[in-house]
Design goal:
Distance between the termini of chain B: 24 Å
Number of strands of chain A: 3
Order of helices and strands of chain B: EEHEEEHE
Radius of gyration of chain B: 12 Å
Number of domains of chain A: 1
Shape of chain A: globular
Number of helices of chain B: 2
Largest sheet of chain B: 6 strands, antiparallel
Structural class of chain A: mainly alpha
Strand content of chain B: 35-45%
Helix content of chain B: 10-25%
CATH superfamily of chain B: Ferrous iron transport protein A (FeoA)
Number of helices of chain A: 19
Number of domains of chain B: 1
Strand order of the largest sheet of chain A: 2-3
CATH class of chain B: Mainly Beta
CATH topology of chain B: SH3 type barrels
Oligomer: heterodimer
C-alpha cells in the first residue's frame, strides 16, 4: 500500500533497499549489466558498420601530445601560445575601443554642460559610472574575445582530456583526482563555473579539494589586470620586438605558479583536514574531432564573452559611481577613499602594496573585473585629474603614485592568489552546502596571498634597499 | 566465490597487448562506472599507451579509449589473448 510518508520514511526505505542489494553481492547488478551489453552488441552488429579512419589519426596525434618527451613541453607551448596570441591580438582593438569610448565621454560632458546639469551629477554619471564602464569594456572585451574562442577551440578538438591524462600522476601524488585539471581549465574562464564543474569528481573528499583550490587559476576577470600590469612593468625593459613574447612568458610563469600552489594546497589539505585514501579515476579519452567553427564561435562569444562582460558591466557601473562619490566626499581635508587608503596603508605596505591597491581588492570583492578600474578611479580622484586612454598613460599614473616593479609583482601575485570573488563564494556555499568550507575557501587563499607577498617584499627590501 | 585461475591484473599488461576480462574485484561507485563503460567479463581490452610519467594507462575497450590508474586496473583480472 502506498501512503504519503515523510522524507524520513523515504530515506529509511532507501537504506533498506541498499541493504538488500548489498546482501546479494554484485550478482544481480552484474547480470543486468552483462545482459544489456549482450543485447547492445547484437543490435550494433546488425546495423553498425565501422570505418577505421579516425582511430589512426587519433593514435598518431596522441603519440605526440601525450608522449614521454614531448607531452609536457607541448602543453606549456600551447598555453603560452594562447596567451601570446591573446596579448598581441588584443592590443590594437583595445586602443581603438578606448579611443572611441573615451572620446564619447567628452561628448557626454558637453551635453551635461548644455543642459546645465549640476557638477556632482556629471561626476557620478560620467566621471564615475561611464568611465568605469569604458575601462572595463576596453580592457576586457578584446582579450576575452580572443582568449575564449582559442580555448573553446582546444576544448572542441578534444585536447583537454589529454591534459588531464598527462597531469593525473601529479594529482595522484597530491591525493587528488586527475579530473581536477579539467575543473581548473574551466576556472580559467570563471572560477564560479570552475567550482560548479567540480561535480564531475566522484569522491566527495577530492571534490572539496578541487573546489577549495579552484581559485588559484586566474579567471577571466583577473587576466586583463595581470596582462595590463605585466605589459606595463614586465616588458618595459625588453626591446620593442620581443615585448609580447616577454609578457606571454610572464603570464605563463604566473599561471604555473598558480598551478604549483594548487598542487601544494591539495597535498597539504589531503594530509591534514581532508585526509583520506586516493580514490579512483576513470577518464575517457574521446577521439580528436574537427572543431565545428560555428559552435566554437557561438559558445565562446555568446556563452562566455558576452556572459562575463555583462556581469562585469552590471557590477562595474554602480562600483564606478560609488568609487567616484567616495573619492569626492571630503571629511576634514581627505576624501573618504583617502581615509580608507590611509587606514589600510600600514598593512598594505608590509606586503608591497599601497592602501589604494588593497582597498581596490577589497572593494572588488563582488567581481575581480573591477579592481583595476576602481584603482584607477581612486588614484585619479585623489590626485590631480588626468586624461588618459592607453597603457602608456596608465603607466604614468601608476608610477606617479609610487609604483615600482616590486609593487607590480606583488599586485600580480596578490591578484593571482587572493580570496575568491563573491560569486565564487556563493557558488561554493551552494555546492558544498557548508558555511565552514566556504569560510575555508576564503581564508586559505587570503593567508597564502598575504604570506607570499610579505615574504617577497621583505626579501626585496633586504636585498635592494 | 569466484576464483581467477591463471589470470593476471590488467595493470600488468604491456602496451600493445590485448586481453580478455575475467572478473572485476572493484566495489561501489567505481564498479558501476567501470561496468557502464562496458568493462565486463568477456570483453576484449587493448592496452594502448601509458601517460608521460608511466601512469595512468589508456585502454581501448569497445572502440572507446579509457584511462585508468594503476591501483584501479590492478583490481581488474584478465587473461592474455
Amino acid at each position: 500500500m502506498i501512503t504519503y510518508g515523510s522524507k524520513k520514511q523515504l530515506e529509511e526505505l532507501k537504506k533498506e533497499a541498499e541493504k538488500i542489494r548489498l546482501s546479494k553481492g554484485n550478482i544481480i547488478g552484474d547480470t543486468i549489466v552483462s545482459d544489456i551489453f549482450n543485447n547492445a552488441e547484437k543490435l550494433a552488429h546488425k546495423v553498425v558498420r565501422q570505418g577505421s579512419y579516425s582511430v589512426n589519426w587519433t593514435t598518431k596525434t596522441d603519440n605526440i601530445l601525450t608522449s614521454k618527451i614531448l607531452g609536457y613541453p607541448i602543453m606549456l607551448l600551447l598555453l603560452s601560445t594562447v596567451f601570446w596570441i591573446t596579448i598581441t591580438g588584443a592590443n590594437m582593438p583595445s586602443e581603438i575601443i578606448a579611443t572611441v569610448l573615451f572620446g564619447f565621454q567628452d561628448v557626454l560632458t558637453r551635453w551635461f554642460i548644455m543642459i546645465d546639469a549640476p557638477n556632482w551629477l556629471h561626476g557620478v554619471l560620467v566621471l564615475g559610472l561611464y568611465r568605469a564602464l569604458a575601462w572595463v569594456v576596453s580592457v576586457m572585451l578584446p582579450p576575452m574575445a580572443i582568449f575564449f574562442p582559442l580555448f573553446t577551440l582546444l576544448e572542441d578538438l578534444g585536447y583537454l582530456p589529454r591534459v588531464a591524462f598527462n597531469l593525473d600522476h601529479l594529482f595522484r601524488k597530491a591525493n587528488a583526482c586527475g579530473k581536477q585539471s579539467l575543473t581548473m581549465c574551466m576556472g580559467f574562464g570563471c572560477n564560479a563555473a570552475g567550482v560548479v564543474s567540480c561535480r564531475i569528481i566522484d569522491s566527495p573528499r577530492e571534490k572539496l579539494i578541487a573546489i577549495l583550490t579552484n581559485n588559484f587559476v586566474p579567471c577571466n576577470g583577473r587576466f586583463p589586470t595581470l596582462i595590463a600590469i605585466g605589459t606595463i612593468f614586465g616588458a618595459g625593459a625588453v626591446s620593442q620586438g620581443y615585448q609580447s613574447l616577454a609578457i606571454a612568458g610572464i603570464i605563463t610563469i604566473l599561471i604555473l605558479l598558480g598551478v604549483g600552489t594548487t598542487f601544494l594546497v591539495s597535498w597539504v589539505l589531503s594530509r591534514t583536514i581532508l585526509r583520506g585514501e586516493t580514490s579512483s579515476m576513470v577518464l575517457e579519452l574521446p577521439p580528436y574531432r574537427r572543431p565545428k567553427i560555428g559552435s566554437v564561435i557561438y559558445r565562446s562569444i555568446i556563452d562566455r564573452t558576452i556572459f562575463v562582460l555583462r556581469r562585469a558591466i552590471l557590477v562595474a557601473a554602480p562600483a564606478g559611481a560609488i568609487t567616484w562619490m567616495l573619492g569626492n566626499i571630503f571629511i576634514v581635508d581627505l576624501s573618504l577613499i583617502g581615509h580608507v587608503a590611509h587606514f589600510l596603508h600600514p598593512i598594505a605596505h608590509s606586503i608591497g602594496l599601497d592602501g589604494f591597491i588593497l582597498m581596490a581588492f577589497i572593494l572588488g570583492l563582488p567581481a575581480n573585473e573591477i579592481i583595476l578600474p576602481i584603482l584607477i578611479m581612486s588614484y585619479i580622484s585623489s590626485g590631480h585629474m588626468l586624461e588618459f586612454d592607453n597603457l602608456v598613460d596608465l603607466r604614468n599614473l601608476l608610477v606617479d603614485n609610487g609604483w615600482t616593479w616590486l609593487t607590480a609583482v606583488n599586485t600580480m601575485l596578490f591578484s593571482l592568489l587572493h580570496w575568491p570573488c563573491a560569486t565564487s563564494l556563493l557558488t561554493i556555499l551552494k555546492e558544498t552546502g557548508s558555511k565552514k568550507w566556504t569560510i575555508m575557501a576564503f581564508i586559505i587563499p587570503t593567508t597564502i596571498a598575504f604570506t607570499l607577498c610579505f615574504i617577497v617584499t621583505q626579501i626585496a627590501h633586504f636585498l635592494f634597499i | 566465490m569466484i576464483t581467477y585461475d591463471k589470470s593476471i591484473p590488467l595493470s600488468q599488461i604491456a602496451v600493445g597487448c590485448t586481453c580478455r576480462i575475467v572478473g572485476l574485484e572493484l566495489d561501489g561507485i567505481l564498479r558501476r562506472r567501470i561496468q557502464d563503460l562496458g568493462i565486463i567479463p568477456g570483453t576484449a581490452v587493448e592496452c594502448i599507451r601509458r601517460g608521460p610519467s608511466g601512469d595512468p594507462t589508456a585502454y581501448t575497450i569497445r572502440g572507446t579509449t579509457v584511462a585508468l590508474r594503476k591501483e584501479d586496473a590492478s583490481l581488474i583480472h584478465v587473461h592474455l589473448i
